[in-house]
Amino acid sequence: MQAAGRRVACAVSGGVDSAVAALLLRRRGYQVTGVFMKNWDPLDEQGACSADRDCEDAYRVCQKLDIPFHQVSYVKEYWNEVFSDLLKEYELGRTPNPDIVCNKHIKFNHFLHYAMDNLGADAIATGHYARTSLEDEEVFQQKHTKRPQGLFRNRFEVRNSWFLYTIGQRARLAGLQGAWFVVDKDVSTGDIFVAPSTDHPALYRDLLRTNRVHWIAEEPPAELVREKMMECHFRFRHQMALVPCVLTLNQDGSVWVTLVKPARALTPGQFAVFYKGGECLGSGKILRLGPSVFTMQQGRNRAEGPKKEGMDKVEPAT
Ligand SMILES: Nc1ncnc2c1ncn2[C@@H]1O[C@H](COP(=O)(O)OP(=O)(O)OP(=O)(O)O)[C@@H](O)[C@H]1O
Predict the structure, then answer these.
(1) Does domain 154-202+301-314 have CATH number 2.60.290?
(2) How far is ligand 1, taken at its centre, from the CA of residue 126, in Å?
(3) What is the pTM of this model?
């Protein structure tokens, strides 16, 4: 976009990244307006809420850059569209990613429309990191070499609100020494299943299903699809090495994702993000997981898997 005379509304959070974004835009000659979004009401908070302090910082950034400052409240929208979703996801036993939901609903919907309709902006800007060039592209493929053996034999019953545990995390178990790692949760019983090492095969899976995928450019890229299958790369965690995968495209827009090598701690509620040659194609929320490497090694299917063995029950640490 040519800079001269173009108006850009920059979401200024009070942090460094959006301040730098606003500065760079201004230096390039855009007419920049800073907008702080208030997404949380201190009255909903028992402790101290930093929103007011952030707003003051955002105001100071705009003063320093000598650009107009606006504040807009999305407290109601954030509660209804982001926070309520977060609670619902936890109730379903998933580990939600509210930042992605906030981007979708608040920043790239409400803020975008506010900027265009109320501020007359030609474009919006944020301090998000995104590589916009595919030059010097490298796709990293790390070898998954370590497959330690070990017994998947402990489980414990968690009272009050198991949502504190997420797959892959280290769990403290009262009465048991050593490190234990969460490998699965059963929301219907409140059980958390643990393994005795951080890279236990029970933590590794190579199959997952998402909800309807949001494709960035087109749905899905036609040149990549062969008989309802598509080869691309997968990542579900920031800075995780890209893993080659095959997508099976379902009628309802969801996909099954088969990874060429198992990934650690795949977690329902997190987002599977798909790439081709470094370009981000789209993403979908992880809803279901296939059997773990450990389960497959044991030659059992999921229903007859290790959960039904006589596992020890121990109390969680409080
Ligand atoms: N309350 C807010 N008001 C306005 N913009 C916001 C707000 N929160 C986030 N943003 C925008 O979203 C971008 C990403 O926010 P996030 O908190 O994920 O990242 P960040 O790297 O900490 O950014 P920053 O250093 O600018 O705070 C910010 O750079 C900013 O442009």
Answers:
(1) no
(2) 7
(3) 0.80
